[in-house]
Amino acid sequence: MKKIKMSALAIIFAVSAANAQSSDVAIRNDVKTDKQEEATIKKEKREEKKELRKSEDNDVSYQSKQQFYSDFGNVPVQQWNRTSNFDEVTFLNDGQETKAYYDTESQLVGTTTHKSFDDLPASAQKYINNKYADYAKGDVIFFDDNENNDMDMVLYGSRFDDSDMYFVELKKDNKDIILMMQENGNVSFFTQLG
């Protein structure tokens, strides 16, 4: 009789342990599923906003214009433009042509300015001159990120994490490539054009 009671207790204990483990697995699977659904929802919202921008007229939003003047003051504006990703404004900033990018919430994502190859960090210049010696150097652009906005930026048709970056266009034969580099001089391939 004792053996039967012990066996019954062992079975109850084993079933309880199995149920606890399957509950843990179910909870982990639920958390994983929730995170995947959240990512999918964010992506869908971003796509919806993009489609809404396409369906709206091509005018830059009033809010983006007001935010621009709040951010930069009463500076001379050369051009306003709405793209599928941003409201863009080209203006003169301390005598230098600058472009500011505003997201769908009319918040500044960052600015771009044209630079020269000599403006790049010395280590980046040396790396490019050695590794890409047979490429012609093209445009150099500096992207100055708005650290208060975590939206990713899109340049040359490619998205990148928001941080201050230089971009250099290099050409060889019919091949155009874009390199990106951080202000510390780290250089990496960004995209190929065309």
Key traits:
alpha+beta, extended, eight-stranded antiparallel beta sheet, 39% helix, two-stranded antiparallel ribbon, 3 helices, 194 residues
Structural features, described:
The protein has helices at residues 2-55, 62-72, 122-131, and strands spanning 77-82, 87-93, 96-102, 108-115, 136-145, 153-155, 158-160, 165-172, 175-181, 187-193. It is α+β, with helices and mostly antiparallel strands and 194 residues long. The protein has an 8-stranded antiparallel beta sheet. A two-stranded antiparallel ribbon has the order 6-7. The protein is extended. The chain is built from 3 helices and 10 strands. The longest helix is centred in the first third of the chain and has 54 residues, at 2-55.
Task: Compute the average pLDDT.
Answer: 83
Strand content: 25-35%
Helical amount? 25-40%
Helix/strand order: HHEEEEHEEEEEE
Straight-line distance between termini: 83 Å
What is the subunit arrangement here? single chain
Rg measurement, Å: 27 Å
Largest sheet: 8 strands, antiparallel
Global shape: extended
Contiguous helical run count: 3
Low-confidence parts = none
Helix/strand/pairing category = alpha+beta
Neighbour order of strands in the largest sheet: 1-2-3-4-5-8-9-10
Q: Tally of extended strands? A: 10
Give a summary of the structure in a few sentences.
39% of the residues lie in helices and 34% in strands. With 194 residues, it is an alpha+beta fold. A hairpin with a 4-residue loop joins β1 (77-82) and β2 (87-93).
